[in-house]
Amino acid sequence: MNIKQPIIATAALAIVSLAGIGGVTAASAMTNSNSGDGTSIVDKIASKFNLNAADVKAVFDEDRAAHDTERKADQAERLKTAVTDGKLTQEQADYITKALAEIDTLRGNSTPGDTDDTTRDQIKAKMDALRTWADDNNVDMQYLGHGGHRGGGFGGPQGEKPDSASSSSATES
Q1: What is the Cα–Cα distance from 91 to 97, expressed in whole angstroms?
Q2: DSSP label of 3
Q3: What is the DSSP string of 49-67?
Q4: What's the gap between Cα 59 and its chain centre?
Q5: Which of these, 94, 68, 95, lies nearest to 150 by C-alpha position?
Q6: CA dist., res. 72 & res. 155, Å (int)
């Protein structure tokens, strides 16, 4: 076993652990830049421990993918439970699932720091439309979010009333 592999894993784990609930967000942002000096945390770890930056980035990417998979499973379970408990209809749960999948597709594998303005605007518009749809259909906002993923919400605080999206655009998406 390569001695560098445990160092990479330990360093990445420590950084994600220190970041707490927003660890994926912090780790994602850290792979891009840090403190405005243009050096990413990946580059700093690679340099400090004399590692290959691509290997360190791979650890961050693997961790992000694992958290994303877990987040999606948690969301699906939360919606399934809400349907079982009579808090959502199956159609509402399906609509939320579809809308969140569209948002995830827009995001792709990008990190918050490397998403362009057009994509951010599209994500915000879809989330605003979803919030408007939820408000119009008396759906609790708790079913729309991905928990702590990427800052705990999409485009603003939970419960924020959107001012620009219409429910008809949400149903046509």
Answers
A1: 10
A2: T
A3: TT--HHHHHHHHHHHHHHH
A4: 17
A5: 68
A6: 19
User: Tens digits of per-residue pLDDT, 111-156?
Assistant: 667 788 999 999 999 999 999 999 999 999 999 875 433 333 433 3
pTM across the whole model: 0.60
Q: From the CA atom positions of the chain, what is the Rg in Å?
A: 18
Element housing 152 (H / E): none
DSSP 20: G
If we measure between CA atoms, which residue out of 10, 28, 32, 7 comes closest to residue 19? 28
Taking only the tens place, the pLDDT of each residue in 22-61 is 444 444 444 444 445 657 899 999 999 999 999 999 998 8
CA 161, CA 156: separation in Å to the nearest integer? 9
Which tokens in the block code for residue 95?
A: 């609509």
Decide: helix, strand or coil at residue 42. Answer: helix
Do the Cβ atoms of 141 and 131 come closer than 8 Å? yes
In angstroms, the CA 94 to CA 100 distance is 10
Q: Cα dist. 152→18, 66, 133, 139, 146 in Å?
A: 17, 17, 20, 18, 7
